[in-house]
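Hey everyone, long-time lurker, first post.

I ran two proteins through the pipeline my lab uses and got sequence/structure pairs for each. Pasting them in order. The first:
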Amino acid sequence: MMEDILKEIKNVPAVMGSYIHVTGITAVHSDLPKIFLNKIYDVGDAVDRIIKVNQSTNMHANNIELKYEEAVIIVRPIDSDASLITFCETGINKKTLNMTTGMLSNELKEAAKRIRSSKKAASSKPQAPAVPVTEAPPAKQEVDVNKILHAGPLAKVFQDFQNAFAMAIGPIGEMVMKDTVEKWAKKGDCSGARLGELVEMLCKEIDDKSLEAEFKEAISKHLI
């Protein structure tokens, strides 16, 4: 049923995907692109704070909008501790989206209840003993992704990658590209010899064989 709710919302034109956020529960209930999965709980946590401010000032908004250059995040409270967070392209028809989510309000409340029930059931299970860590994790390598993309020796190549990638996945392409290049840069030198590795990482985000083939064809001149 959860999947059906998210699918119906995603059928609204210009919706990228949505996420049911329940306060205190980090389990992912989402159909968003992979690029968002490590960040959506942080978005939900921020939304919790906004809702608490609204409540403390006796403001009860039906929807909350967070606007960015490439996307709009629309938050619809489900109950006092749960929200539907929808990531949209900037051209979203908000009236259509509000109508769709409004019709699903009862289903969303039931979904939030099930998420809470699943959390309680999981917490009642005996936990496996923790495994002691004997070695400290390696320090994270810091990279300046903006410098790599726009001022590094491969800046022109990355621009071509960006243009081809946006053709494959749409307006969130720049956001996904930046995140993927940052991960790629942390794994080794930012050199032409490693571009093939970056291409494979980007293709995993495209996740469509025909679009992957078009992307690879468009940037083939840059591959060794």
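...and the second, right after it:
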Amino acid sequence: MKKLQLISILVALALAVPSQAADKPKTLKDRIKSVSNRMFTKSGRMELTVYPLTSISLNDAFYQKLGGGVGFAYHFSDMFSLQALVTYSLNLDAGHATSYTISTETETKVPYAGKRKLLAGVDFCWSPIYGKISLASEWIMHFDTYIMAGLGGIQGEQVSGSSFGFAGAVGLGARFFFNDTFALKFEIKDYMVFTDKVSFGEGESIIEKSDVQHQLLFNFGLSIFFLDGSQED
């Protein structure tokens, strides 16, 4: 009986040691998880991005633009992709636009900038940076950043009526991934409109202004990834 009691005591002590170690508070090093693999893959996948009135102009002295639209992208690999974007913007009067008279009879004053409504573009994207950040030492968020360049167009209203301008576009973007399917997407994009012309005046006094106009936009949307894609080494 004494031997049996001794064995029981030794077994209880052996079980108590791991239990006490498990109850020991975790250090900051223990709490931050080490993650070595990607949480997501983009190669061979389609990306749909929805912009619910989250396309906002940043450099407007005339009309502040608030737009919504959709974007599509195909990822050839985790680094390279091709995307298309279409947005339609509401034009809110900024209240401090420089005006000029286009009719001496009616004294109509119209801001030179006009109203830009439909914006579209196709961009080639390169994603050179992928990383992870720790939030409050508890949650790890995965992200990537990309550089884009492409061509596009802007349709809107000018003094002489409806107009359309061709544009080059450059920008920077980033995605923050919730999981392998959903991500938040941020972009700053500069449309450089090369064929933007405005005519004003009458008869022989008509003056036409033509130069490169910049339309700087901040886009914020929700991306949804489709297809299984292909795993890369």
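Reply from user beta_strand_b:
Welcome! Quick read of the second one: The chain has a mean pLDDT of 77. The chain is about 10% helix and 60% strand.
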